[in-house]
Design a protein that fits this description.
- The chain has 512 residues and is mainly beta.
- It has a single domain, classed as 7 Propeller (Methylamine Dehydrogenase, Chain H), CATH 2.130.10.
- The strands form nine sheets. Strands 2, 32, 33, 34, 35 and 36 form a six-stranded antiparallel sheet that branches. A five-stranded antiparallel sheet has the order 1-7-6-3-37, with no helix packed on it.
- A hairpin with a 6-residue loop joins strand 9 and strand 10 (179-181).
- It is globular, with a radius of gyration of 21 Å.
- The protein contains four helices and 37 strands.
Length: 512
């Protein structure tokens, strides 16, 4: 495949941006009503709100309730769409909005918070134009007729995930490449792949990182070409190998997972027919063909030309927790499975109203175990939960190994959406859970191994909860070696309400 323009038509750009959230009053609103002083602050990329004059200063030390583990001396990075009202254009779909990195800096029992707009090419161009110019994932935008794009970068909002690779913070979505940021200042350093020939190639929100061999494995789908692509990169961002699977449609692939030898990619019958109409949103082109199978591709890491294909019933996955090889012939993985992604992504997420989604929809994701037999090509599935489950995370020391425990958020039927933190033993099915107060909704909770390890449960679990009613957000820290039901050992109340973030990670100071 030679370098090509991935954006011959504006509407042909993939902007799948994250997952689930709640209708909250979001940070960083930029509109014509701001004072000239605040307009200037907005241009620097610093998050501001008309009520938060002090927040422009950048870092803010926060009060800790309980005891914050002193061994935590790193940074928790979170990423999500932080600007939902841009010069009067409300970006109403859950996945739309300029990306904002939120960072919590830990320092031996103390903690500070800082947030900043990722100054993407799109953000700077639209800030100058004082309007939303380019197509969005699910929000109707009046695209100027004279818009011409020579690359895919102007549609990238960089608002899904944040990872650190070789001491650089990567801000990710799936519209185009990735942005590299300074992890201390959150300012953009550079964008995209190292090689010029790959600059316009799409990159996923969830690359898988092999720290031992310093490799990156990534899978994403291709619009307008159709099909999907699998990459192997090194930590410099250089593409070592890739494989394109051609298809007549573009199946939505948000995540993939790896074992020691394989890359596993679930290819759903949730796809878009090509080409898209320039007047449409991206999501409007996607349909779920429930009578068609979901295909599972298993690629060899060392040779992407070698792969096997499995089939199972039609379903969709946003995220995997882990995968590992059992014996010579079996691959085991877990993921929240959607029986009908169209009902959730095209309809529910467009409303930004999740108060009653559990009661209204039978298509909520449920946590599932999947076993692939590479010898017989058989697929075995087991549902591990009956209630809502999403954003699974594990002890990273057990990546590509047999992990027993997974943390995820969801709801077991008490109303609302993301109100509970679960910690599940995947082998026995035993579940511990903590129910947050009714006025709070949750983000993904990150799992990080302790320095002193006695078991797989030697972890810290940390995640943000939001209360629009109280107009504040709270960072909660759990000890994985104590029952989750006992609640957090520490929480940090922010005197303001943060934007909802989809993904992120905690990193020790040595990594940044």
């Amino acid at each position: 495949m030679k370098r090509r323009d991935f954006l011959k038509r504006v509407s042909a750009i993939l902007t799948m941006q994250g997952l689930l959230g709640s209708h909250v009053s979001l940070l960083g609103q930029v509109n014509s009503g701001l004072s000239s002083k605040k307009q200037k602050a907005a241009r620097t990329g610093v998050i501001l709100d008309q009520d938060w004059k002090e927040f422009r200063a950048g870092y803010k030390e926060l009060k800790v309730n309980g005891k914050l583990p002193r061994e935590l001396t790193g940074v928790l990075f979170r990423n999500g769409p932080g600007i939902k009202d841009f010069y009067g254009q409300v970006q109403g779909h859950l996945f739309d909005g300029h990306g904002v990195i939120s960072a919590f800096y830990f320092n031996r029992g103390k903690i500070r918070h800082h947030a900043r707009v990722t100054e993407t090419e799109r953000y700077l161009l639209e800030l100058k134009a004082k309007q939303t110019v380019y197509p969005l994932f699910g929000t109707d935008v009046k695209v100027p007729k004279d818009i011409e794009l020579s690359s895919s970068w102007p549609v990238n909002q960089a608002n899904i995930n944040a990872i650190v690779v070789d001491k650089k913070l990567w801000a990710l979505n799936e519209a185009s490449g990735f942005y590299q940021l300074d992890p201390k200042t959150l300012t953009v350093v550079r964008k995209g792949f190292t090689a010029e020939e790959f600059q316009d190639w799409p990159f996923p929100a969830h690359p898988r990182i092999d720290m031992k061999n310093k490799k990156i494995y990534a899978t994403t789908y291709l619009i307008p070409q159709g099909g999907f692509i699998v990459y192997r990169l090194n930590f410099k961002g250089e593409v070592e190998s890739y494989k394109v699977i051609k298809m007549p449609t573009a199946p939505m692939i948000h995540d993939s997972i790896t074992t020691e030898r394989y890359i596993i990619c679930l290819v759903p019958p949730y796809s878009t027919e090509l080409p898209l109409d320039v007047e449409d949103t991206i999501v409007s082109g996607f349909r779920f063909f429930k009578d068609q199978p979901t295909r599972i591709y298993v690629f060899e890491k060392e040779n992407l030309e070698n792969f096997k294909v499995f089939e199972t019933k039609g379903q969709f996955a946003f995220h995997f927790d882990n995968a590992y090889e059992r014996g010579n012939d079996e691959i085991v993985t877990h993921f929240p499975s959607y029986s009908d992604p169209y009902e959730v992504i095209n309809k529910a997420f467009a409303k930004l109203d999740f108060a009653n989604i559990v009661e209204e929809s039978q298509h909520i994701p449920r946590y599932k175990k999947l076993v692939l037999n590479t010898k017989t090509r058989q697929v075995k599935e087991d549902n591990l939960t009956t209630g809502l489950a999403e954003f699974p995370r594990i002890n990273t020391d057990y990546g590509e190994k047999h992990n027993r425990f997974t943390a995820f958020i969801g709801n077991s039927g008490d109303g609302g959406y993301f109100r509970e933190l679960f910690y599940m033993n995947n082998d026995t099915g035993a579940v511990e859970k903590f129910l947050y107060p009714k006025e709070y909704h949750l983000e993904e909770h990150v799992v990080y191994p302790k320095k002193k390890k006695t078991s797989e449960r030697s972890v810290w679990i940390m995640g943000v909860s939001h209360s629009p009613k109280k107009q504040h957000s709270v960072l909660n820290i759990f000890d994985g070696e104590t029952p989750i039901s006992s609640g957090p050992i520490a929480n940090i109340e922010l005197p303001y309400l943060l934007h909802y973030c989809f993904h992120g990670n905690y990193y020790d100071k040595s990594a940044i």
